[in-house]
Request: fold
Amino acid sequence: MSHAVNLEQAAQLLARGHVVAIPTETVYGLAADATQPKAILKVFEIKRRPLEHPLIVHLADPEGIFHWSAHLPRFASILIEHFMPGPLTIVTRRPPHVAKEITGGRDSVALRVPAHPLTRALIQRLGELRSLPYPAIAAPSANRFGSVSPTCAAHVHADFHGEDLGVLDGGLCSAGIESTIVDCTKEVPTILRLGAIPQEAIDGVLGMRVPVETHGDVRAPGMLPAHYAPRAKVVVASSLSEFQSLSQKLRESYRFVASIGAPRELSSEFNHSIPWSDDMEANARALYSTLRHLDDLGVEAVLVLLPPLSGLGAAIADRLLRASKA
Ligand code: TXA
Ligand code: MG
Reply:
């Protein structure tokens, strides 16, 4: 059975090589001590994730980045300065001490300093227990492989209730969508995953238009075309007219249908409808819990009017597009 643990229990479990579910400001993670390869393998087992899909290493402080990275180009230091702690992940060259179990055998490693105070305190406590100057935990999102990420402890319990798993409850995730991933292994940056830090903010601090290559490596799960999917069929529309024509087709094919993001006059025919808020941060925060909620209601299909593709809207649309390909 999955069960609640407090910070000290979570740190003790991690130190003894167990897996613990942890809060972050983006989504919950399924964590193991990054210095214990056997513990890392358990993460893959519990998540049912293929071994070649790499995990993100989470640190308590930005200072730890220098220990966990072999090389940082100048632009990476600027990103660290501006966005860490926070929902940014950088992919950098892997130093020899980083277990290949974490990176799926690659010569790069993904690093992030979450902004959640409980998580940072947990990593620090793990460092005390194991006498590590730069403690770290390796963690993917705490959902079964391919399904919707968890944004509260209840979501984690729902996915892993059958597992002997400690869950540290840190409340609702404030960002609600995964970190933005930037490749820092070359002399020029590339965005590998759109996320909680908008592309415009990255471009702004680097003073350039950073290219986005989110379809590059199919071994990277967040980049698989079919990912982040609820049980319900997800169909996306990018304009009102497309929404209207899909709406009729969908209601002919399914009995219990929901809409997300549609204006009121177009949603009356749906069994359930959820509008977008004008506040895009609120939309990101609610996205995964909305998809899970619609599944719980037994909704068979969801028609989504995509938000405008600027700022966080781009990351929200990215997740919904991938869900629609499942
Ligand atoms: O917000 C987040 O990033 C959350 C929380 C828990 O921190 N974590 C998360 O982990 O989303 P996960 O495993 O669901 O997604 C990690 C992403 C994947 O797309 C993975 O392929 C990519 O990071 N990644 C990890 N290491 C990489 C590497 N060395 N090179 C390229 N991509 C990498
Ligand atoms: Mg994930």
About this structure: DSSP finds twelve helices and 14 strands in the chain. Residues 24, 26-27, 29, 53-56, 87, 89, 91, 103, 106, 108-110, 112, 139-141, 178-179, 181, 192-193, 220-223 surround threonylcarbamoyladenylate (ligand 1) (CB under 6 Å).
